[in-house]
Amino acid sequence: MKKFWLKQELLQSRVKPGEVDGLMVIADQLGRVEQPKLSRAAHQRIEAATHRPSKAPRIAAWSAAGAFATITLVVISAQFAPESSPLYAIKRGTDDIRAFFAPQAKTAQTNSKKELENIDLQSSKQIESAPKSIKSPEPEKSSDTSNNSAHGTQGSKKNSGKSSDQDTSHHTKKSHRSWWWDSRDSRH
Amino acid sequence: MYRTYADDIFRFLLTHVRDTTLAEDLTADTFVKAWKGIDRFDGKQPRAWLYKIAQNLLTDHWRRKQTLPLDESIEIVDERIGHDEVVDQQIASHRVASAVAKLPRDMQSVVNLRFMQGYSAKQTAEALDMTEANVRVVQYRALKKLKGLLS
User: Fold this and answer.
1) Secondary structure letter of residue A55 according to DSSP
2) Which partner from A106, A132, A147, B8 sits 20 to 30 angstroms from B42, CA to CA?
3) Nearest CA to B28 among B1, B47, B4, B54?
4) Does pTM top 0.90 for this prediction?
């Protein structure tokens, strides 16, 4: 195809038809001359000289930093979120993660929680026992109050969990024991 | 643009200077100059723009040297080819390259782009800032002269 076009061009240039074939042979020889390529070292040199740093990595770094800052802000604000807040789920998640990595911290936290619950329980007992001591040395009433207090502890059991079990059981035992003593006295 | 034209520019310069290292240096200079002046480039005919830069660098080079070695030949050896083939190819290439080196510069440019690199008359005209008719005239004269040199 190339030869055809070259022949046409040569004929258009008013070259004699007998001369065209000889020139075509020369053109063919020129086409066979091996064409070297730029060496790899030269390519690297040129690329290094004409290298323009792309803006894409900088944009990616800024967007990553922005995302990180946003996530951090959300997680921190979630730590102070009330239970009704949708952020509370994040707080629970972070608590779970913390417990996974540092179980001691979790037990310390639960211990402190238990202590608080015990304090609450004791104070509630004191409140309940205060009128009892004032009002009655009567056995029936004391059994009633003990029942009430047992009932009351059951109510608080729901809230307090396992830690209060021992105290409440102790308390109910005590009330049963007083009831037993009372009934024994009445029998005698 | 660099990937498309780097080898072509290198071959064009090598045809003129017949020194691989020098041709590589001039190719690098061409692209560095193009890169620096990219703001002034209108985006049309990048080939012509690059060849113009390469030609200007060649002119500067010749001005500095003031001499044009004509008898040296290009020594391009492909080590992958067998020994006999290498010898035959080298002899043929040597003869043709020596003959091309004896042509005037404008003919060398046309011969290189038109016959060695396979550009069309239009592309050659664009690259060398010539008219197509002028390219045809120069190529005819170059072939005629080469025929005389090689026979």
Assistant:
1) S
2) B8
3) B54
4) no
Q: Do B143 and A23 touch (CB under 8 A)?
A: yes
* B10 vs A contacts (CB less than 8 Å): 36-38, 42
CA atoms of A44 and A42, how far apart (whole Å): 5
Residue A40 C-alpha, separation from nearest chain B C-alpha, in angstroms: 11
Contact assessment for residue A6 and residue A24, using Cβ atoms and an 8 Å cutoff: yes
* CA-based radius of gyration for chain A: 47
**Are the Cβ atoms of A33 and B147 closer than 8 angstroms?**
no
| Cα of A146 vs its chain's centroid, Å | 48
Measure CB to CB from residue A26 to each of B20, B35, B143 and give the nearest one.
B143
pLDDT in tens, A110-135: 777 778 888 888 888 777 776 655 55
Residue type, position B37, single letter: G
Q: What is the DSSP letter of A76?
A: H
Q: Is there a contact between B65 and B33 (Cβ–Cβ < 8 Å)?
A: no
Q: Is B59 exposed, middle or buried (0-12, 13-18, 19+ CB in 10 A)?
A: exposed
CB contact under 8 A, A38 and B96: no
Residue B98 CB partners (closer than 8 Å, separation 6+): B71, B73
Residues of A in contact with B121 (CB under 8 A): 9
